[in-house]
């Protein structure tokens, strides 16, 4: 209550007095004075007149009051505002074009800002996300490949109590399957330490998150669902809380569903389900108990200090397990945004530069329109100035008008940005963190309001200063007569040139982006992705019965071959091949190898791909020399290898490749879930050379690769490449059924995908596509704006010089000459703009090429210049035509 | 310029023109002597000055409004002597302080200026 009273009091002390209050007081004073005068003998109407002469009119008193208390400036501004709105309503065509130009620029800039905000400034929903660090080991020999390191329970506890650590999250990922239903469904499970709820502090959509109490009694069998999984598996049913879920033949209770923005985590894989980590130790089927840590630092600790404090602890861990650490390393705490910052930051910077250019072009357009229209207002402004308006007052009036324009543009632009900001995310989803959600919020609104004010002042200032110049004597005569109404200096010609130059820059950028994207699309892949899909199966390591059958090397390779044969037998399937971790365009694991018959090299490395003999046919990779292994060799797995052309060129160039020896010492394992062939590390003979297929990304050169029979080294996970007739995914159901005939509960993992979709999802590919589409759109918008600018300038000047053209025609000027006179200035400015743009772009090309990661194409620059020149010519000539359509008699009648 | 009392004939001396900010001080002084409405303040100043001051009515209310806005005087509606509604002004605490400070400053300045102007050539 006392607060309310205080607010009430404050309002009373701040609120101005009302109009009637001021007037009433004044009237009472006036009356008293008037009575005084009458008392002194003046007649009543004389006294009344005199009182008003001395004190003033009661009606005008409120103005005096507002002036005295400093409110007048607001009154004037609101007057300017009303006047500005009226002026715009009178010129709806002008207003529409100006507002639209700004809406495009402001909308695109706001969209890009909200994207940057969502992706780089505030991408994660976690509490204190800026303090969450991802500790990685930097191998000093390969500093750009940070390495995660797992902790065991004791190490985890030790790190948790380190001084700079506020809280520590441990997690581990596991491939699991939902059982109990018809066909088993593979899911990605993430075990989280039970402090997850407080560590993330994200409010669950339904139910609750994991709590420390879930660790009791070796862990409660509870599970929290990811939003997308909940949508996919349960159709978003809110009644799932408390329901059982059968995972790997065990029952769990669903306790919560996370909101859509929670997608822990982008780096190691987004989990479908989240489980308490204490269960992991209880369930025997997880290979080893380990935690990948995420550190939340205390709020006052700097990253460098925390790094220094944690390094000795990790050094201690390295002494305990030297095999997990490289020889020379140091610890680095990476903010969790780090993996996205570099590439995404570059992408967004480039796009932001593009939209800022667009915004500048939009602003220039408004300036041009205001200047061109200015002559129609000179008369009005001259009168204002003549009756005493100061220059500042006129500038203010004109600025208010332009801010009205820009604010209207901003409102439309913000509405449009809501949609525009989603475009990059849908065009290149893998370039952005999965958890970034784009929404209009306070910082973004503040940004767009600031943008509107800045733009309004920016484009309004030049015309305002120009139009408010005090040469009223020249302007005041009724209307401009004069046969040759010599146009004064045209400020807009400079603006047109600038606008055209910037448009050319955007067009050339778009041309470069589109060109390099086309080149990327035309680039030979070395394999044929059409009608091929990759699909994976997880072997049943958890089911003792099934595991017994496939644990041994021979048992497993037979099982895999059986499944492959069944897939191949499905009608419509042309080829089925095993190819684990061998799906282009990123294929194979880098391993060192020894090579026989040459001097020792420094640790030669190649991609090792474990594939079946049908692999090359399935991907249509040509065999260049020798042969591919047969079925028997495939089952044995040893003594042979096939290499690609890049390998031959790099390592075997001195002599015939066939018959050369190589061996891969690291091709062995202690892991009880993997199985290597008897002689997997022995010398192997090169029996064939195949063509190069992309294995390091669509845009990168092919790196040397060694293809081995898959039975040389088998993980509990197998991938198949299936070539079909027509759309591969339509065969998924019959392939499932075929696999079920080998083992009824053998599921296909999620994420079966056609190879051409893999290419489209490729980060570089999708980024190039994003650039070409967005810069194409930006430059089309810029071109439209520039043309509208040129068009309206010529149209205005033709309309104003009707008389002049009429006289010229009447005196016998050739039509071509009149046309030239009408379009001359705009044409010359546009041409100047193109030349400036050409000069500027050749200089800028190098910078741009660096940012776009592709060469700046001179060809596309000239093509853009030609297109721009042609369309500018049209934009000049279309309105200039009206100059020669003037009927001389008609024009002269005005005189 | 119009004096409120033109029928009383020419004042004895030529009316004094008020330096900037002085009118505000005079109003504060008038109000400090008792609750007054606007016209009353005008009359009171005229009366104290022995009719030697002439106040421009046009600028009078501007000064009142400004003083009220600054919180030095406070207006309240009440009944005037002839039973009319009128707005009566009184000095606030801040106004009292301002009057005191302003008066001291004014007297000091006037003394300094008068002292300088009174000097004869041989006294310097």
Can you tell me about this structure?
The complex is a heterodimer of chains A (895) and B (124). Chain A has 895 residues and is α+β, with helices and mostly antiparallel strands. Chain A has four domains: 2-70, no CATH class; 129-336, no CATH class; 493-523 and 761-895, no CATH class; 541-745, no CATH class. Chain A is 53% helix and 15% strand. In chain A, a hairpin with a 2-residue loop joins strand 6 and strand 7. The longest helix of chain A is centred in the middle third of the chain and has 49 residues, at 338-386. The radius of gyration of chain A is 38 Å and the shape is globular. In chain B, strand 2 and strand 3 form a beta hairpin. Chain B has a three-stranded antiparallel beta sheet with strand order 1-3-2. With 124 residues, chain B is of the alpha+beta class. Helices cover 49% and strands 13% of the residues of chain B. In chain B, helix 1 crosses helix 2 (38-48), helix 1 packs across helix 3 and helix 1 packs across helix 4 (93-118). Mean pLDDT of chain B is 80; it is low at 1-13. Chain B has helices at residues 22-32, 38-48, 57-69, 93-118; strands at 36-37, 73-79, 85-91. Chain B has a single domain (15-123), classed as Winged helix-like DNA-binding domain superfamily/Winged helix DNA-binding domain (Arc Repressor Mutant, subunit A). The chains are: A alpha+beta (895), B alpha+beta (124). Chain A binds chain B through residues 13, 24-26, 28-29, 31-33, 35-36, 40-42, 50, 53-56, 61, 64-65, 67-70, and chain B through 2, 4-5, 7, 37-39, 57-58, 61-63, 65-66, 69, 71, 75, 80, 82, 84-87.
What is the number of helical segments of chain B per DSSP (H or I, 4+ residues)?
Answer: 4
Query: What is the distance, rounded to the nearest whole angstrom, between the alpha carbons of the first and last residues of chain A?
Result: 75 Å
Side by side, the strands of the main sheet of chain B go 1-3-2
Q: How many angstroms does the end-to-end distance of chain B come to?
A: 40 Å
Total separate domains of chain B: 1
Beta-strand residue fraction of chain A: 5-15%
Determine the most extensive contact between two protein chains: A-B, 26 and 23 residues
CA-based shape of chain A: globular
Q: Round the mean pLDDT of chain A to the nearest integer and report it.
A: 82
Largest sheet of chain B: 3 strands, antiparallel
Poorly predicted ranges of chain A: 477-487
Counting structural domains of chain A, the number is 4
Instruction: Tally the helices of chain A.
Output: 29
Number of strands of chain A: 24
Assembly category: heterodimer
Q: What would the principal axes of the Cα set say about the shape of chain B? A: elongated
Computed structural class of chain B: alpha+beta
